[in-house]
Amino acid sequence: MRSSHSLDRLDTAFDDDRLVADAGLLLPATLAAHLGLKDLVEEHLHLGKAPGRANVGDKFLTLVASALAGGDCIDDAAALRAGGTAGVLGFTVKAASTLGTFLRSFRWGHVRQLDAVSRHLLARAWAAGAGPGDASLTIDLDSTICETYGLAKEGALHHGYTHVRGYHPLLAVAAGTGDVLMARLREGRANTVRGAAHFLRETIGRVRGAGATGELTMRADSGFYAHEVVAVCRRTDVRFSITLRQHKGVRGLIEAIPEAAWTPIPYWIDSGADVAEIAYTPFADRKDARPVRLIVRRVRPTPGSQLALLTLYDYHAFITDRVGEKLELEADHRRHAEIENAIRDLKYGMGLNHLPSGKFTANAAWLAVQVMAHNLARWTARIGLGAGIVTTKTLRRRLFGLVGRLTRSARRLTLHFPARWPWADKFAAALARLRAIPLLA
User: Fold this and answer.
1) Exposed end of the chain (fewer CB within 10 Å): N or C?
2) Exposure string (b/e) for 164-200, b if CB count within 10 Å is 16 or more?
3) How many Å apart are CA 339 and CA 117, to the nearest integer?
4) Residue 100 contacts by C-beta under 8 Å, 6 or more apart in sequence?
5) Residue 235: CB partners within 8 Å, gap ≥ 6?
6) How many CB atoms lie within 10 A of CB 108?
7) Is the whole-model pTM more than 0.90?
8) How far is residue 26's CA from residue 85's CA, in Å, rounded to a whole number?
9) 206 Cβ partners below 8 Å, 6+ apart?
């Protein structure tokens, strides 16, 4: 058998200052520049006399670019200082050591200043073509567990209801696009609904302020089944669709629905699923209680599954004040599960799966970084590529992770990419579209 040693004869050298790692970050960096992200940070974020108060715009954008490049810890930002990478980003890349100091300088008021930055950034991106305009918009409300290890992280010392130690942030996501409309870090043992009403009210305000003028609908699972959440929707003229907690009384109402009221729906098992509707008054002990629609889907047990003894169906019920045919509303409510795709992209496409600091407010700022990086990736695909939802992993493989080389000729820089790159045309088209956005700085 012949053996090839050609790879063993290949010499390596780290000596080219013109090579650009992740040169495709030119796309989201261009979008960030045209939306004026650096100026927004410098306008709204003021760290007082904290050690990390200087050059907040450069430091924040360094963390965002690192997240877009696949960095999930502070030290990963050092890769942006290699070769000529800083030349395609449009800001001064800061050292990882200064980024850690920057994050630890945050207090809760500073985290709220980043909320103002993300609110203005959302409005600018939607005005540039990424928003819903006067079309209807559905807000998916959910929470997730960001697991941590050890006992050195503030707010993550105790196990939550899932028996996992970590943080428990709230998230609001735009259905159909995956834009994270708002996010807020909470301690790990926080109940799902804690702070949800205020969070939802603020989300609705920022969505309206960003230019969404069409009908708004809020979808949520049973963790957000609370009078305060429904009351916010009613006061702000937002339709709601919330999974019902099935206590004994509700279960009795559902089981009493006559057989003739059930309508079959398509299912992979013949006659395996049906939908019915009745009137129901949630939170009946409150003065503002009023009847709503209770829509129920029942499912026969699949082969090999096991329900409680003498149970023939598994029931999934939700309350809603929406107008429409019950089968369409039931199918739409199930699409609330698509928020898990955005959460997965935040954790595994960005760096939310790793909250790096022992300080709670530093991790809250880290969450804000990941959210804005995630949104920049989504807007790059929507505005630049004219595409729908494209995961960060796909964008990074095809566009952001491109390797390039900078050359200078006739006082002009040129960024050279590999020949015969399969997505070269899409990259060029996206860059042209992003550069056409009016500069908002």
Assistant:
1) N
2) ebbbbbbbbbbbebbbbbbbbbbbbbbebbbebbebb
3) 23
4) 74, 357
5) none
6) 11
7) yes
8) 10
9) 119, 122, 123, 181, 182
Phi-psi label, residue 150: left if phi above 0, alpha if psi -120 to 50, beta otherwise? left
Query: In this structure, are strands 216-220 and 137-143 parallel, antiparallel, or unpaired?
Result: parallel
Task: Please give the span between the terminal C-alpha atoms of the chain, in angstroms, as a whole number.
Answer: 64
Q: Break the chain into its structural domains and give their ranges.
A: 15-131+356-441
Residues in contact with 142: Cβ distance below 8 Å, sequence separation at least 6, in sequence order: 170, 171, 173, 220, 221, 336, 339, 340, 343
Conformational region of residue 162, where left means phi above 0, alpha means psi within -120 to 50, and beta covers everything else: alpha
List the structure tokens of 69.
């490049």
pLDDT higher than threshold 80 for residue 249: yes
Residue pair 243/221 in contact (Cβ under 8 Å)? The answer is yes
Task: Give the three-state DSSP class for 257.
Answer: coil
Place of tokens 């991790």: 363
Cα gap 169→303, rounded to integer Å? 36
Q: Which residue has the higher pLDDT, 361 or 162?
A: 361
Q: Is 1 exposed, middle or buried (0-12, 13-18, 19+ CB in 10 A)?
A: exposed
Q: Quick one: tokens of 439?
A: 């500069």
Q: Where are the beta strands (DSSP E) in 272-379?
A: 273-280, 292-299, 314-320
